[in-house]
Each structure stands twice: as structure tokens, then as C-alpha cells.
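Posting this for the archive.
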Amino acid sequence: MKNMTLCDFLLLEARCNRARSKSRHAAPEPATSRDAGGPESAIRKRILDFCGSQWPVWVVLAARTDERSTLPEGAHDLTIFGPFPLCILVETKSRSGKLRPSQKIWIKNLDMLRWKVRIVTTWEQFQRAVDESKAKL
């Protein structure tokens, strides 16, 4: 693996910061019936912002909310990769949201493989999930 010089690092950091500022100023996508900008999308956005603010940046695989996804029915919303071996599986729900039967099956199948899907309705629940996951490292 090649070592990065300070100059290379600063150039890369500047390029990443420019890309982030461009994406933040882009016009928002129109809301759809699946993502009407409610509480579920607010917590999801806050989680994505948090992951993007980490250094190194935490990588997130996110299920689409604007149209049908290629993920299996019932799959959780976010797979978050932090520093190895940190991996957090998150299903975001509004406070009144309930799991669909397909989601319950998905979560049970992952549980049998000893992967825990965190059902998150508040920022505090997400923070607790991060803290608990870090404590197990």
C-alpha cells in the first residue's frame, strides 16, 4: 500500500469537501408517496449526515426510498460500515411505524446469523446502537 504524503492528503481532503458542498447545494429531489419527508426521512438524513461527518467517512449502503429497490423485500434501510469490524444494520421507522411481515422475517433471518438489525425511531436510539456496537469491538 502506498503511503500518502501530507500534500496528497490535503488535496484529497479539499476535493472531498468540494464534492460534499456541491451535493449539499443541489436541488432536493421531489418527495414521493414512499418518502414524504416525514419523521422517518428526518432520522435517516441525520444518520447519513453523521456517517458522512466521521473520519474516515463511514460507508453507508442505503435502500432507496424514492422508488422500488433491487434489495429483497423486507431488507433493512441502512448498512453502516465504520472502522473495521464496526457494522451497524439499521431499520428506520417513525414513532408510530410498524414492521411489515416481510421485515420481521428478514430481521429474524439475520438474527439467526447473529446479525442484529437496530430498529431506530429517534436519534438517541441510533446513538445508543453506535455506542453498543463500539463497545463490542
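The helical segments are 6-25, 39-53, 101-112, 123-135. The CA atoms of residues 75 and 90 lie 10 Å apart.
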